[in-house]
């Protein structure tokens, strides 16, 4: 029988432990479900009661993790010499989760949660009014609380390492410097070489579409590429995201807004996250090995479907006429123009709207500022100035306002400092994996040209998705690519794509 929870027959020596852990899994996934509902359906005024629900669930799930029964049962099995390799792996992961949770005092966690909700509200107001000073005191506090967080978690060289490790296990600020050092110069040089006379208007095709028609086409594409709608769904939300309630309940959102391309790129991006979650080997269901291995790996998958597939000629040759029929104004935009439009590089202030060539420089700017503020090299009040100066240096543009500058992203307001480099890991890893895939799959270009993605989907399942968290991120890169993270494939692809048009 297929089950979303653990398979008791597979882990006979861990039955009691996994039975206790099951409640933690169920409560955590209920939090995800409530969060999904909040972003998709919940009425505005439901927010206060929803916060209460989330708080209670957090406390209950934390209690299970910290509780004596789970701890005792884990200690007992640790001494069992008969554990299978899979059981040992589960025990190792569970021990790691519990010891990490133990490092953070409950009172500190609560203080951070309260700050996040206040800081998020302040950021929202500051952003809409374009007044950075309204957010600054909260951001000051946020950086301080993240320094304390890093102290609890522990680090050797830079407090940034402790924060980054939560999102990309084993990666350090030194790794980030090395990665950015390799890509910064070639990318800024390529941006310099871009034609200056790109026509206005081609970088945005706007128009109103019929929501039902658009979603129908989205779902058709989802099924074609490998997303299982019997184990998932698609809805609309202001900020697209993917929520994995369980491996057989993975929910995507996209937006059906005036900026047409964004609806398709968001859908493909979130589908990449979703297909990863849907295709982890069922034997890990309900164990700590379930779920994608790191944010960087996850992002490599979302960016693969968004950029490698979603900007390709084969994809649009197959789907463009359907997309046109949902948006009447596209009748005037021939396929060739649309394809050119999806593959144009032009610096923009907004990270999420930027092309592949300029995207990582947005990440670099945030990384450099985060690390400088954490280490007291620049003050929070000076962030807007530092931001604009870096934008000018790296991308040759200055945002019109802080709203389009340092206030554009939600991450700082919810305490996600140390998160951004995972975006660049994803972008770079995506092309490294693609290179390997091209070597492994015969006639891959024919499949890409005819938009037949089955062989690609199966390759990803076999080489990446199935393993869940079994390997550490760096181990999995080695296993898949036979080398460490290497940005050369990404740089080569950028050169071919943007300088040869
Ligand atoms: Mg993503």
Beta strand count: 3
Largest sheet report: 3 strands, mixed
Strand content: under 5%
Q: Termini, distance in Å?
A: 52 Å
The low-confidence runs, each spanning 5 or more residues with pLDDT under 50, are none
Measured as a percent range, the helix fraction is 55-70%
Please give the count of helices: 20
- Mind telling me the C-alpha Rg? 23 Å
Rounded mean pLDDT is 93
Strands of the biggest beta sheet: in what spatial order?
1-3-2
Hetero groups: magnesium ion
* Order of secondary-structure elements: HHHHHHHHHEEEHHHHHHHHHHH
Q: Which structural category do the helix and sheet elements fall into?
A: mainly alpha
Which term fits the overall shape? Answer: globular
Describe the structure.
This protein has 20 helices and 3 strands. The protein is mostly helical and 501 residues long. It has a domain of 149 residues. Strands 1-3-2 form a 3-stranded mixed sheet, sandwiched between helices. Helix 10 packs across helix 11, helix 11 crosses helix 16 and helix 16 crosses helix 20. The longest helix is centred in the N-terminal third of the chain and has 26 residues. It is globular and about 70 Å long. The N and C termini lie far apart (52 Å). The protein binds magnesium ion. The site of magnesium ion has 4 residues, from helix 10 and helix 11.
């Amino acid at each position: 029988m297929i089950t979303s929870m653990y398979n008791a027959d597979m882990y006979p020596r861990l039955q009691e432990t996994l039975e206790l852990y099951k409640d933690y899994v169920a409560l955590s996934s209920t939090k995800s479900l409530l969060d999904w509902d909040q972003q998709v359906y919940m009425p505005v005024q439901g927010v206060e009661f929803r916060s209460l629900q989330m708080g209670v669930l957090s406390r209950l799930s934390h209690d299970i993790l910290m509780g004596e029964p789970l701890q005792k049962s884990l200690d007992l099995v640790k001494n069992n010499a008969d554990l299978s390799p899979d059981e040992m792996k589960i025990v190792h992961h569970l021990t790691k989760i519990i010891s990490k949770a133990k490092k953070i005092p409950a009172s500190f966690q609560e203080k951070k949660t309260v700050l996040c909700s206040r800081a998020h509200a302040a950021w929202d107001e500051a952003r809409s009014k374009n007044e950075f000073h309204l957010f600054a005191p909260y951001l000051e506090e946020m950086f301080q609380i993240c320094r304390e967080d890093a102290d609890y978690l522990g680090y050797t060289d830079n407090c940034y390492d402790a924060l980054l490790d939560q999102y990309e296990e084993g990666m350090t600020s030194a790794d980030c410097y090395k990665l950015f050092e390799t890509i910064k110069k070639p990318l800024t040089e390529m941006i310099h070489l871009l034609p200056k006379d790109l026509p206005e208007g081609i970088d945005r095709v706007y128009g109103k579409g019929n929501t039902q028609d658009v979603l129908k086409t989205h779902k058709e594409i989802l099924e074609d590429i490998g997303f299982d709608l019997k184990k998932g769904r698609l809805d609309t939300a202001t900020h697209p995201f993917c929520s994995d309630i369980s491996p057989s309940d993975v929910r995507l959102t996209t937006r059906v807004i005036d900026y047409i391309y964004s609806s398709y790129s968001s859908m493909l991006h979130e589908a990449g996250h979703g297909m990863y979650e849907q295709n982890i080997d069922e034997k890990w269901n309900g164990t700590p090995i379930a779920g994608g291995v790191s944010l960087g790996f996850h992002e490599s998958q979302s960016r693969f479907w968004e950029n490698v597939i979603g900007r390709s000629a084969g994809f649009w040759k197959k789907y463009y006429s359907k997309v046109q029929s949902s948006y009447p104004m596209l009748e005037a935009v021939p396929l060739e123009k649309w394809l050119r439009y999806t593959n144009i590089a032009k610096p923009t202030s907004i990270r999420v709207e930027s092309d592949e060539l300029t995207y990582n420089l947005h990440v670099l700017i945030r990384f450099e500022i985060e690390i400088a503020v954490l280490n007291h090299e620049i003050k929070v009040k000076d962030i807007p100035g530092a931001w604009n100066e870096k934008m000018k240096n790296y991308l040759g543009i200055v945002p019109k306002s802080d709203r389009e500058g340092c206030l554009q992203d939600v991450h700082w307001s919810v305490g996600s400092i140390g998160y951004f480099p995972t975006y660049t890991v994803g972008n770079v890893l995506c092309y490294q994996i693609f290179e390997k895939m091209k070597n492994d799959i015969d006639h891959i270009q024919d499949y890409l040209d005819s938009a037949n993605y089955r062989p690609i989907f199966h390759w990803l399942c076999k080489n990446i998705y199935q393993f869940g968290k079994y390997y550490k991120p760096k181990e999995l890169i080695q296993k898949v690519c036979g080398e460490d993270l290497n940005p050369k494939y990404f740089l080569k692809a950028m050169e071919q794509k943007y300088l040869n048009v």
